[in-house]
Amino acid sequence: MVYFDNASTSYPKPECVYTEMDRCLREYCANPGRGAHAMSRTAAQGVAETRAIIARFFNFGDPERIIFTKNATEALNIAIKGSLRRGDHVIATMMEHNSVVRPLIELEKENGVEVTFLAGDMYGEVTPSDVAANIRRNTRLIVCTISANTNGIFMPVAEIGNIANRYGIPFLVDGSQGAGSVDIDFKAMKINLLAFPGHKGLFGPQGTGGLCISPGIELKPLLQGGTGSDSENPSQPQVLPEALESGTLNTPGIIGLGAGVFFINQVGRQNIEDHKQRLITRMHEELSIHPKIHIYSSKEPGKNSGVVAINIDGIVSTHVSKILDEQYSIATRAGLHCAPFAHKALGYTAKGGVLRLSVGYFNTQDEVEFTLHALQEIADRSVDVPYELKTHQCIQCGACSRSF
Amino acid sequence: MVYFDNASTSYPKPECVYTEMDRCLREYCANPGRGAHAMSRTAAQGVAETRAIIARFFNFGDPERIIFTKNATEALNIAIKGSLRRGDHVIATMMEHNSVVRPLIELEKENGVEVTFLAGDMYGEVTPSDVAANIRRNTRLIVCTISANTNGIFMPVAEIGNIANRYGIPFLVDGSQGAGSVDIDFKAMKINLLAFPGHKGLFGPQGTGGLCISPGIELKPLLQGGTGSDSENPSQPQVLPEALESGTLNTPGIIGLGAGVFFINQVGRQNIEDHKQRLITRMHEELSIHPKIHIYSSKEPGKNSGVVAINIDGIVSTHVSKILDEQYSIATRAGLHCAPFAHKALGYTAKGGVLRLSVGYFNTQDEVEFTLHALQEIADRSVDVPYELKTHQCIQCGACSRSF
């Protein structure tokens, strides 16, 4: 099996992630921060080590200002809903994932928050001047993905950070598609809030994610509950990280995440980025010469976090993905990728989304060649493919009318 | 090491939990519900199987009305905040954990929700008639733990369910301390919302939990985000489970949880309950005759989910726990147990909480005898123990002033 769905979740994980998670579960998986016994302290120490390694990895400060969440979606919801109040204005890009779009639309509908979604160029990249031009007196948050999940395009995050900083507006970055291979420097990029998933480029398991919160930013928690501290207080304590980490943490997951970041440090983040860049450059090279294949991702080095988004004339993306899966055992993702505005921005909604090939560190040149060959075969015989375009066909169960 | 901290998180887990999680991570841990390729379908099928086995285990109906959360705290927050509006009244007990108390106090302070916390008998058990007597015209939710985490006392959940049902008031049960060993029959107990942790009695890993939602109950989500479905819709879809499961699920954790429930079914839930009952009966038998030991848990069979809460004259609970840990390698938890009102109800706050011995299926009679012997030794020499009562001493780092 060839796995090109790393933008959904990375697979496989480094061996150390498997072994450290198993060791944690078997040897010391007590409740961290909930007891004073030796095993609980060992678990708490493991969690603290992951906080510390992540703080260093993103050039962030105090590890205690990193909160662990179940995924990047929770981190983004905490950052967005914890920041904005009725009457506030927020700027985001049209390339944001539904983990940003849906909370914003909810606040717009229910809480009177004003939202501006910025369109970008042919790949969706916004310009910093466009961000500056849309700042209002009541702009209280700027949200930007570091790289779009649909086509991998990078956003000019450092430049937007400069603008946000100049206007004193908190800057939230969604690191979902970059964290792990892309250089994310919290301080240099003038980020105030960085949401990240654990299970993508950072090589942790699913069930992990987090939010780095710069000093001075106070977020209202979405959850209240036991924090293991200040137990006699029936109100939520205000000290980080507990204030935003109610309930038992995912200790084995966080240990796995720490192992994942350790692996990146061992290999070298730049080497991972370079490897991915080589793979997508080769994909671009070959796919761009096929007359029936359209590419929606930038081939410019440094402009793509590892995604090649394409369509093949005459055949809807979900069916290309299905053929790749069934006939070649190649795992990809097709459709709208939980980013409705991104597709509108790029203009291919009507075609049923795009086929996304997302590469990871464990992909090889041979896998790329095999996949290019498969795509060329499918494109060459696309006129013969009997599938029809069904925008509301369920590609998961085949029976219901949900669209993906 | 002897582990008597199962009420915090169960340890160890059954072997099948370790092996199935590792197998999932290594072999098929794609993103469930986010792609149509074979590995994603396998992951989705594994998640669906856990939903199904849990639905059967609790005699619940449609598995699709079970949502997975990161812990019971998230499930309780979704149930409470998703149900209550300004001006509503809610009834809870004083034995609730902070995962119930803190969301309710937050709603009381910020959203004008009225809350009644009911006191119970000497063990905190409330009477159904007290619940009925406190129902108002605007009562919109009754919340009750199935068993208190401080001392294990059972609440008359079936009777309260009958009352709630008669008045048409949604009934939320916190299954944190019962689920797995206690018979929780969703339909027979007339429960409408059942929150459960995955990592305690159900033997799953940390990072898992869930909420069973009866038909007719609609909850407003706390998070919006990608659901893998209805991608072109910038608003949250309303269909369960996706509506309340934004972002990537904890697939390996959910697989482990399924394996945990499978293990319970193999052993027999009643056998687990009986085993735990035997252990706490023996503890009661021996501890109740020591003049310096006070027991705060019921010894009546069927009245205790597996907790023996005690104090030893002249020595604060956190220090008994410390001695047990350091000198006997016995893991327990002491202090307030994230349940401030429970301790007030039971009247031992001033003593710095209680020492909690919480048993699990993997504990043995020998471990109980060894622990009883240790406690007797500590109690016998308690006058010589140099520790002082410091209610605000941090028992985790020893340096800060946080209380636990």
Automatic annotation (TrEMBL), chains A, B:
It comes from the Bacteria. Keywords: Pyridoxal phosphate. Its EC number is 2.8.1.7. Coiled coil: none annotated. Residues 2-369 form the Aminotransferase class V domain. The keyword S-adenosyl-L-methionine does not apply. It catalyses: (sulfur carrier)-H + L-cysteine = (sulfur carrier)-SH + L-alanine. GO terms for molecular function: cysteine desulfurase activity. The keyword RNA-binding does not apply. It holds the Pfam family Aminotran_5. InterPro entries: Aminotrans_V_dom, Cys_dSase-rel_unknwn_funct, Cysteine_dSase, PyrdxlP-dep_Trfase, PyrdxlP-dep_Trfase_major, PyrdxlP-dep_Trfase_small. Its cofactor is pyridoxal 5'-phosphate. Gene3D superfamilies: Aspartate Aminotransferase, domain 1, Type I PLP-dependent aspartate aminotransferase-like (Major domain). NCBIfam families: am_tr_V_EF2568. Belongs to the class-V pyridoxal-phosphate-dependent aminotransferase family. Csd subfamily. This is cysteine desulfurase. It comes from Syntrophus gentianae. The lineage of its organism: Bacteria, Pseudomonadati, Thermodesulfobacteriota, Syntrophia, Syntrophales.
